[in-house]
User: Fold this.
Amino acid sequence: MHEFNCGHQECASQFTSSDKDNLMRQVADHLKEVHNVQTATQTLLGYLETTCVTTTPDR
Ligand SMILES: [Zn+2]
Assistant:
């Protein structure tokens, strides 16, 4: 299971997904809708993935 915790101040959004690609799509949508980031680049998503995504083993 992959869990995203938005690192933006005053934004405590959290998503979980068993599929990381699916999770990162939700993250990209979130950035667009909430943080006004129209283009979530791979660089940005990669950065967020290492800083805001935690992965726990599936049971
Ligand atoms: Zn956010």
